[in-house]
Design a protein that fits this description.
The chain has helices at 15-27, 35-38, 89-103, 117-120, 197-206, 222-227; strands spanning 6-11, 48-54, 57-66, 72-80, 108-113, 125-136, 149-152, 168-173, 178-184, 187-194, 211-216, 232-245. It is α+β, with helices and mostly antiparallel strands and 261 residues long. Strands 1-2-3-4-5-12-6-11-10-9-8-7 form a twelve-stranded mixed beta sheet. Helix 5 (197-206) links the parallel strand 10 (187-194) and strand 11. The longest helix is centred in the middle third of the chain and has 15 residues, at 89-103. The mean pLDDT is 92.
């Protein structure tokens, strides 16, 4: 294994770690607006980073942030610098992260990935897998939605930021529904909603979105309800929810996509 000069748990996300995350998750993927817009919470007092340094350079990093459910840590933005990959630093990073989760008193840690094999050897198991569902409104169906409103999301000071894949987001609201939608190169993605599936879809059509996607748990009836109304829905495998338990009897609640790290 290549020797590194230091490995520390730090409050917030320090400058060098921010640079590596931006390079790994945004520049290399050809996306992103600003770091602060995607991760506005990076300096919150309860956020921690594992930072692996090679001299002054950050070789690897990962972020730990409390989940909406008490005693649960969300893990995200796990990355190793391009020139340091394949040298065992990722395993070192995850081991330190697991230790930090335990030291902070969390009873479980959760992360989301399309590559579960990366984490199974570090104490994580696959709990469930999302369905990525593309929804298309049938031709000729109306989009009558009374008192429809639209605002930019998130607003200043919000706890959540734009998903990594998004360049913009809006919150739509009407008498019978609410929806938060992210817009990006792959189209419109429904992040969160309130109301019946048909009321949400009708409101999105009023906003000009006749074709959009949503991530659903395996047992969520949302897409089935739309299918029964004539909407075309095409599902494909989505991200795995991976969990590491400190207490085997702990019950992990699902984290809505809008709240995930």
């Amino acid at each position: 294994m290549s020797v590194v000069s230091s490995l520390r748990i730090e409050r917030g996300v320090p400058h060098g770690a921010r640079d590596l995350i931006w390079q790994s998750f945004f520049v290399e993927a050809g996306r992103g607006t600003t770091f602060e817009r995607h991760l506005p919470w990076y300096n919150d007092p309860d956020v921690r980073s594992v930072v692996v340094r090679d001299g002054r350079d950050v070789a690897a990093t990962a972020i730990m942030r409390p989940a909406p459910q008490a005693a649960v840590a969300m893990i995200g933005y796990v990355c190793v610098g391009r020139s340091r990959r394949g040298q065992g630093i990722g395993r070192m990073l995850m081991d330190a992260l697991n230790e930090a989760v335990d030291d902070q008193g969390f009873r479980a840690a959760v992360l989301w990935t399309t590559k579960p094999e990366v984490y199974t050897g570090r104490g994580y198991t696959a709990l469930r897998r999302d369905r990525f569902v593309r929804v298309t409104k049938p031709a000729g169906l109306g989009a009558d939605c009374a008192n429809f409103r639209s605002e930019e999301w998130p607003d200043s000071g919000a706890a959540n930021g734009l998903p990594a894949f998004a360049t913009d987001a809006k919150i739509y609201s009407a008498d019978r529904a609410m929806a938060i939608c992210a817009c990006g190169p792959r189209g419109v993605t429904l992040l969160d909603w309130r109301g019946a599936a048909i009321d949400v879809a009708t409101m999105l059509s009023a906003a000009g979105h006749d074709d959009w996607s949503v991530n659903l748990t395996a047992d969520d009836p949302f897409s089935d309800e739309l299918s029964s109304q004539g909407y075309a829905t095409v599902a494909s495998p989505g991200a795995f929810t991976m969990v590491r338990y400190r207490n085997a009897d702990f019950v992990l609640h699902d984290v809505p996509q809008v709240d995930r790290i």
